[in-house]
Amino acid sequence: MAQDKYFSSITLTFLFLISHFLFIIAYDLEPIVDPIVDPPVAKTSYIVFTKNHDYVKILASVLGSEEAAKPAILYNYHEIVGFSALLTPEEASRLSDQEGVLHVYEDRYLDLDKGLEVQINN
């Protein structure tokens, strides 16, 4: 009987030491995945009105390079001097301060009025 108590106390001590050792190892390990410092900001479409047609150069002054500016431009307007681009709100704010930029507007999607169609179908 005394041998069973002795055996169980040795077992408990062994389990305690192993769990303590594993806790120390796990605490000292660096995380496998680095935590995200700043989550990425979603880019939205902005309409930019300018004084000239140097769209890539104007956008490169904010994005850092012409290689980054070219894929960001969605559409070049021909009737007006301007373009549409995917930008973060911060980039759009900085772009509005650039020389040669008249206005920067966030693009909005508007639903067409379906009033007549609803009346016909009802």
Q: Could you characterize the architecture of this molecule?
A:
There is one protein chain. The chain is α+β, with helices and mostly antiparallel strands and 122 residues long. Helices cover 48% and strands 20% of the residues. It has helices at residues 2-28, 55-63, 66-72, 89-96, 115-121, and strands spanning 44-50, 73-77, 82-87, 101-106. The chain has a four-stranded antiparallel beta sheet with strand order 2-3-1-4. A hairpin with a 4-residue loop joins strand 2 (73-77) and strand 3. Helix 2 (55-63) packs across helix 3. The longest helix is centred in the first third of the chain and has 27 residues, at 2-28. It is elongated and about 85 Å long. The mean pLDDT is 78.
Which class best fits the helix and strand makeup? alpha+beta
Number of discrete helical segments: 5
Helicity, as a percent range:
40-55%
Shape: elongated
SSE topology string: HEHHEEHEH
Secondary structure: number of strands:
4
Taking the sheet with the most strands, its summary is: 4 strands, antiparallel
Task: Tell me the strand order in the biggest sheet.
Answer: 2-3-1-4
Regions with pLDDT < 50 over 5+ consecutive residues? none
User: Mean of residue pLDDT?
Assistant: 78
**What portion of residues belong to β-strands?**
15-25%
Rg estimate, integer Å = 31 Å
Report the span from N to C terminus. 89 Å
Compile the SSE list and pairings:
Elements: H1 2-28, E1 44-50, H2 55-63, H3 66-72, E2 73-77, E3 82-87, H4 89-96, E4 101-106, H5 115-121
Helix pairs in contact: 2-3
